[in-house]
Amino acid sequence: MDSATSMESGVNHRQRVLIIDDQKTNLKILADILRQDVDVTLAHSAEQGLRKATEYLPDLILLDVMMPGISGFELIKRLKHHSLTSAIPVIFITALNDSSHEEQGLRLGACDYIYKPFHAAIVQARVRLHLQLTRQRKMLEQLAHIDPLTGIANRRRYSQLLEQYWRSAIRQQSQLCVVMLDIDHFKEYNDHYGHAAGDKVLHQVAHCLKDSLKRPHDFIARYGGEEFVMLLPDSTEHGSQQLIEHCFAALAQLAIPHEFSPVSDVITLSAGGICCSPNRQHKLEDCLKQADDRLYQAKQQGKNRLCWYCPE
Ligand SMILES: Nc1nc2c(ncn2[C@@H]2O[C@H](COP(=O)(O)OP(=O)(O)OP(=O)(O)O)[C@@H](O)[C@H]2O)c(=O)[nH]1
């Protein structure tokens, strides 16, 4: 499982290029040309290349067409088929200056060709261009995952990550805790303090909750309106409940005045949670409904509290 926080972080790292070629001399020449600009990873065969591609998730792959065993054409099919590597751009390296080969490679999903013998300035220019496009694509992806009002992840990102975390919990036979949180009497807040002040509160609450998360895979998103959702993978019921208590305490410390709330004179939250043990029989929708029902229960029982699903 990759880290939720690292996935939400910036794209300004030094980029990595994976070069796959069975000829050591080609690997060395290309690595020498590129090393100044990027981190370089080398693979001497298609099998090793596929392994390193899924392990390092490089920003760009340079792939030799002619290799013994699995050819470059066969390998690009596998890379494009794999969910982890399908978006990584691939540039073919070839000595064959033949348009039908080039057409085949482009049809299989390559973004460009580099011809042997290598011309250092051309290799650098093509690699820089595709790395720049990769960086721009990643920036757009990140923007599409952020809620503009609060700056935390949005519901789209939550849905993606939920699916990943669920599959990972099945594989690792671990628990996934889901918590829904909702600001109490927020309508009254908006009505009395104004919508702009309400927006500010949403921002403050979002960051208070985000800052309360401790582990790298813990995740929070704005679910919509004044509702938030947390995913706490590989967490126990006790640990998750403690974390939510800590969130409530952190919010109480912020002490955002809410004179018109019947439950407190500051902003409070209600929350509903469940620890799911995903397996192929348990449905994700049932777990989410339980978390939602517990949030409803917390509201019904007087708000400013956490209700937790306890299986009979
Ligand atoms: N300022 C602001 N308000 C929002 C936003 N999204 C939703 N709201 C408001 O949140 C309020 C939610 O109202 P309700 O669903 O009645 O919930 P509530 O008043 O918090 O009541 P309880 O949840 O039962 O405590 C509505 O007034 C919405 O207009 C937003 O982006 N900014």
TrEMBL record:
<feature type="domain" description="Response regulatory">
    <location>
        <begin position="16"/>
        <end position="131"/>
    </location>
</feature>
<dbReference type="InterPro" id="IPR001789">
    <property type="entry name" value="Sig_transdc_resp-reg_receiver"/>
</dbReference>
<protein>
    <recommendedName>
        <fullName>diguanylate cyclase</fullName>
        <ecNumber>2.7.7.65</ecNumber>
    </recommendedName>
</protein>
<dbReference type="InterPro" id="IPR029787">
    <property type="entry name" value="Nucleotide_cyclase"/>
</dbReference>
<feature type="domain" description="GGDEF">
    <location>
        <begin position="174"/>
        <end position="311"/>
    </location>
</feature>
<dbReference type="InterPro" id="IPR050469">
    <property type="entry name" value="Diguanylate_Cyclase"/>
</dbReference>
<dbReference type="GO" id="GO:0052621">
    <property type="term" value="F:diguanylate cyclase activity"/>
</dbReference>
<dbReference type="InterPro" id="IPR011006">
    <property type="entry name" value="CheY-like_superfamily"/>
</dbReference>
<dbReference type="InterPro" id="IPR043128">
    <property type="entry name" value="Rev_trsase/Diguanyl_cyclase"/>
</dbReference>
<keyword id="KW-0548">Nucleotidyltransferase</keyword>
<keyword id="KW-0808">Transferase</keyword>
<dbReference type="InterPro" id="IPR000160">
    <property type="entry name" value="GGDEF_dom"/>
</dbReference>
<feature type="modified residue" description="4-aspartylphosphate">
    <location>
        <position position="64"/>
    </location>
</feature>
<dbReference type="Pfam" id="PF00072">
    <property type="entry name" value="Response_reg"/>
</dbReference>
<keyword id="KW-0597">Phosphoprotein</keyword>
<dbReference type="Pfam" id="PF00990">
    <property type="entry name" value="GGDEF"/>
</dbReference>
